Every structure is written in structure tokens, then in C-alpha cells.
Amino acid sequence: MKHYKTLRICLLSGMISFSCNQQAVSPQPAQEPVFAKGGKITNDNFTGNVWLNSLVAADSVNQVAVGSVTFEPRARTKWHSHPAGQIILALDGVGYYQEKGGPKKLIRKGETVKCPPNIPHWHGASKDSGFVQVAITGREKGDTEWLDAVNEQEYDQQ
Questions:
Q1: Is the pTM of this model over 0.90?
Q2: Residue 64, pLDDT score
Q3: What is the pLDDT of residue 32?
Q4: Distance between CA atoms of 151 and 43, rounded to whole angstroms?
Q5: Percent of the chain whose pLDDT exceeds 90
Q6: Which residues 6+ apart lie within 8 Å of 77 measured at CB?
Q7: What CATH number corresponds to the domain at position 87?
Q8: Per the domain annotation, does 19 fall within a domain?
Q9: Considering the domain boundaries, does residue 144 fall inside one?
Q10: 27-59, pLDDT tens digit by residue?
């Protein structure tokens, strides 16, 4: 009878251990993006592979444009400014934001950035991670002014 109890305890322990191990290796479901990736941007205002999904076009009633932008690692905008400013909402990955003359800042999922009007800045993905953002851009004071490309030395600066 003593051996039967020991065997039962060993089997029970093994089953519990097996059950725990099974849960630990179960794959996590892939997280769906909030918005579709959109179309690949082919103009020269970006470095690297970038996609845009235009969500809201500015019009006479709502003078803001809203777009979801997906950057591959190291992809980025040129230096640019917005006459009415811009707001960036980080949806996924890790990105960078920098205003001319200021430090480069990390942007992570769930963080926001307010780009002041008429201040040259750039934003994009970090070196090792893609980055997805929603850009909310005021259009009531004019279009984006595109400036010089962010060169590799500027991008790599800490």
C-alpha cells in the first residue's frame, strides 16, 4: 500500500509539471495592428521603407489630416515643419523624435509627442525596431514644409 501512495504522488507531480510546461511553451497569438499598413510611400520625403494609411483627409470642416504611418527599422522622415503643428501617437514599436537643435528622444508604444508649429523636426523608427504612429497634422495654416534629409550621422547621434 505504501508503494501505491508513492507512485500516485509521483504520477500526480509529473502530471502537474507536464501541465505547467505545456502552458509555458504555448505560442502567444499575434497582435493585430490597429490600422492596416496602407500603401508604400514612394516620394523622397522619407529614408527607408515607410507605409501610409490616410485615415482622415483635411477638409473645410475638420482641418486636420490623420494618418497611420509604419516605419521599418532605421526608416525616417526628412527634417520638416508644420505651420499648425502635429501630434504623434505611438501605436507600436520604438521610434525617435528630434527637434532641430535638441536631443533625440525615444518614443514607445502608448506615448505621445506634440510637435510645435514651425519647428523643424524629424521622426521615425529606432535602429532595431519598427515603429507605427498616428500623425495628426493641422492643415489650417498651410502644408508641411519638407527640408533636408536626416543623414546617417544625425540619425546615429545619441
A1: no
A2: 96
A3: 81
A4: 17
A5: 77
A6: 45, 46, 122, 123, 124, 150
A7: 2.60.120.10
A8: no
A9: yes
A10: 555 678 889 999 999 999 999 999 999 999 999
Helix (H, G, I), strand (E, B) or coil at 17: helix
Looking at the domain assignment, is residue 120 inside a domain?
yes
pLDDT at 34: 85
**Distance between CA 52 and CA 1 in Å, rounded?**
71
Query: Residue-wise over 63-99: b if at least 16 C-beta within 10 A, else e?
Result: ebbbbbbbbebbbbbbbbbbebbbbbbbbbbbbbbbb
Q: Residue 44 belongs to what domain range?
A: 39-156
The three cell numbers of residue 129 are 525596431
Tell me how far apart the 2 most distant CA atoms of the chain are, in Å: 88
Spell out the SS3 assignment of 112-138. EEEECCCCCEEEEECCCCCEEEEEEEE
Instruction: Give the Cα separation of 76 and 91 in Å (integer).
Output: 16
Band the pLDDT of 18: cuts 50, 70, 90.
very low
Report which DSSP code applies to 78.
P
What cell does 30 get? 499575434
In a domain, 9, yes or no: no
Say how many domains are in the chain.
Answer: 1
